[in-house]
Write the structure tokens for this entry.
Amino acid sequence: MTDRPTFQRQLRTIIAHFRRYPDRPAPTTRTLELAFETNRDHSDAMAACLMLTPEIRPGLDQWNVFGQEVWTSSLERHEGKTIQQILDDTYPAETAP
């Protein structure tokens, strides 16, 4: 399983792309591939965190993520949680006391 720092780096990289280029979908990159191919928990957490980031909504709308069951089920899995809570749930052993 990926660790918390790797998850956070991937999340920052993807968010940065959507902030720079809100009107076009992210290109397929190694970071993007790893963010969604690592394992189910990691992929669901990544999708939910991205969907909870309002400033990248235009880019996510380009991907039509809110209309795809695979994305919406990831968000539903983490319903009512903040990004920090999703991170803590996904990587509990690394949660600071």
